[in-house]
Amino acid sequence: MIATGGAESDCRCTVYTLAKVRLFAYRVPPIDNAVYVVADARGDALVIDPSFGEQEVLRTLRANGLRVLEILNTHGHIDHTYADAAVKAATQAPLAIHHLDAYRLSENASAGSPFFPTRQPRVEAERTLDEGDEMRLADLRLVVLHTPGHTQGSVCFHVPEESALFSGDTLFSSGLGRTDLPGGDPHAIVASLHRLLTLPDATVVYPGHGPRTTIGAERSWVEPLTAEGLIA
Ligand SMILES: [Zn+2]
Ligand SMILES: [Zn+2]
Known about the structure:
By secondary structure, the protein is of the alpha/beta class. 24% of the residues lie in helices and 31% in strands.
């Protein structure tokens, strides 16, 4: 099912109906960030990377009567965290980010970002995440996979029961996240990508930028990838 964005927004919005949840997916300018709202049949929801999608997220929450249980960041880059504060203020939901990227929230507010000149409103995380932590939505588990390399505290959220993976800026359709920004590490991201290849080919990957893909579709270029190849 495809839904279009409101007239005042030029974002692209898609609604995916999975087995147990609906997934509202937005692509927001200026750098095609992907924003996700995962909602169960009772109306409980998780927001993944509000990015610059405050209006889109809040409009969807209102239109569908959704309660946000938690706001999740895949990592601390400002293009993923910018609307954390606005969505928190509107929903009173707690915010979670990996402990190694939590410092970036205050850094984004005070210094801006080396790759994005906008400062974001000040915000703090109520919960810091680590490998193996879980979020619950209905009877589903979203499991935290610590996948460093793009940043130290980059994570993917894996939903095994739905064969879904929210991959942040670790894995894109036909690409991977930059490793030349502070905290980036080519060796770490290659290890993280190889780890993701242990997931079933049918796993649908919802990345932090661009269109969705599958593990199977990305396997052929990830398998031979080496850190040396990235650095060269
Ligand atoms: Zn990033
Ligand atoms: Zn990004």
